[in-house]
Amino acid sequence: MTEPRKTAPKNRTAPLSPARKAAFDLLMAVERGHSHSDDLLRGKAVNALSLPDRNLATTLVLGVLRWQILLDHQLQALLKHPNAKLEPEIRIALRLGAFQLLHLDRIPARAAIDESVELAKRAGHRFASGMVNAVLRKLGAAPRVDLVEESAAEVALKEAHPAWMVERWAAFYGRDGARAICQHGQRQPVVTIRIASAAVEAELAEVGIRLEPGELLTSARTVVSGDVAETAAFRENRVRFQDEGSQLVAELASRASESPNQNVKSILDACAAPGGKTLILAERNPKAQIVACESSAPRLDQLRKRLVLHADRVECRLADATALAEDSVFDLALADVPCSGTGTLGRNPEIRHRLRLEDLARQAERQRAILRAALRAVRPGGRVVYSTCSLEPEENEQVVSAVLAEAPHARLISLESCIDALVRESILTASRAERLRRCLTPEGALRLLPGTFHTDGFFIALIERSA
């Protein structure tokens, strides 16, 4: 009797959760510079996932990006050859496993390790998958060590930020201030919405959305639970997501004129996309004509769609804000300029990995050009609000100082009167106004450092053209 012929065992593929596969793909796209995590997490691939998988994928992507510097430091020490250069796919698989082992208590260690090994295999690195397995097992078994924070560099490592960044912040804002900025950057930002009326808030409550009052503005709400993006109010643009600090920029701009309800007939929004601030300018100045500029055609299309309800008095213009031709035309201008974004690291964690010190000078050159153009565009007596979501003096005070040094017909105005106006009109909560006033610089600009309130970091200055 002949024995049955034996066949070679098939190379079976181990199971892999959709959330981890999506997180791996998105992190690879960020690593290669193809896109930003914020855009990717709102893309089709993530939206196609179930809600639990979508939430896990988001947690993994943002968590790995936030803790990447410290994760790499911890993993490097466990490699057989610590100075070895790893392929990008292996780095991402290791980071994903390490983040789950060290930061997600509810994830079983076996699932975190096994699926990281499988990700390495599926990426074509079957030989290196054994190393991924060994390193992650050693990491999972290693005792937790609490890092010291005696220097800015040690704060940087413990909070997974670039040392050069934290050392600058410590010099500008003190070590405790730098630590607070870093800790804010490691937390998931609160979800803040802007509501148009009490009726909208009641409608959201009826469909299970739980809200709490905003920290600063009476029109802001913090989302405690529920998915606002799935509601009719969101689809119909009756509620929108917007950081409370971003809302505050536009609210201050809307009250930047000495008599805002009477004098503001024309407004320039020099860098308008994505349009959240433009909407507030339109809502608070119902008689004003607004020119909203954007230099990117795709972003301009998105801006037009977002502002469609105000199309009769908002002109969306494809224009480079550094080359505006208008002179003495507008009563008010908002120059919310492109910047490094270091005030938004909790929301955009990959900025810390991409930004270089030399980038600040390039940003500042463009920012000065935009502010000059905006200042030229307002009439004598008109005002310009200059704002960034940066923490860096090169993009903030130094830009304003440089432009004012060239323009004897312009002067810096304290924002305190604008804060007072917002309180009088019940736009700003009186209980927080005093804390906000303490954020004014000696020159009267407003600096919101991350961690002071539940907002991103912003710098806001008010400039008046006198002639």
Structure description:
With 467 residues, the chain is α/β, with parallel strands linked by helices. It folds into four domains: 18-141, NusB-like (N-utilizing Substance Protein B Homolog, Chain A); 152-185, no CATH class; 192-227 and 231-240, Alpha-Beta Plaits (2-Layer Sandwich), CATH 3.30.70; 243-465, Rossmann fold. The chain is built from 20 helices and twelve strands. It has helices spanning 18-31, 37-41, 44-47, 51-76, 88-103, 109-122, 126-141, 152-158, 163-185, 198-206, 232-235, 244-254, 260-263, 276-284, 297-306, 351-354, 359-377, 397-406, 416-424, 430-437, and strands at residues 192-195, 210-213, 220-225, 239-241, 266-269, 289-294, 314-318, 330-336, 378-388, 410-413, 446-448, 458-465. Strands 5, 6, 7, 8, 9, 10, 11 and 12 form an eight-stranded mixed beta sheet that branches. Strands 2-3-1-4 form a four-stranded antiparallel beta sheet. Helix 1 packs across helix 5 (88-103), helix 4 crosses helix 5 (88-103) and helix 5 (88-103) packs parallel to helix 7 (126-141). The chain is globular and about 70 Å long. The chain starts with 17 loop residues before the first helix and ends with a strand. The model is unreliable at 1-11 (pLDDT under 50).
